[in-house]
Write a structure and sequence with these properties.
Elements: H1 22-34, H2 47-56, H3 60-69, H4 73-84, H5 88-105, H6 110-125, E1 126-131, E2 134-139
Antiparallel strand pairs: 1-2
Helix pairs in contact: 1-3
Length: 143
Amino acid sequence: MNQNTFRPRDILNKEVAGICGVARMTDKARAAHTGNIGSYKYGVDSEQDTAILAFLGISAETFQEAAVQIDHDVKLGAWILDNCERSSEEVSEFNRKMKVWWQSKIPQDEFSKRRRRLSQERENRRLFWFDGNRWLWKKLFRP
C-alpha cells in the first residue's frame, strides 16, 4: 500500500467481527503501522476510531498490535469478540447507531437533493393498476 492508493474499507463494512467500522479501522491500523496511512487518521486522532474503540473497550495500541499480528479478518474478528465482551444485541445497536451517524455525515449537495426530489415527483405521477388480465400504465400529470 502506498499513500497515493491506500483506501480503507467503508465505515459500514462489517466483515471483521460483524461490527461497523472495525474493518476500516483494521485497514488504517495496518497502514499506520507500515507508515502508509497517507492523510487518513488512526486511533485517538480519528473520531470514528475513538467511538469504535470505546465501544470495544480496546486501546488503539492493543488493537493495532492485534491487527498487525493477525492478518486474517475472520481470526481477527474472533479475537475482537473474545476481548470486547459485547452481546450480539449491543453490537446490533452499535451498528444501527453507526449507520445513522454515518448517513448524517454524507454531504447533501444541491444536485443530489434536486435529483432525489425529481425522482419522487416522477414516482408520484405514475399509477399502476390491474384491469382484468393486463396491466395498464397511466401517467397522471399534476400541476
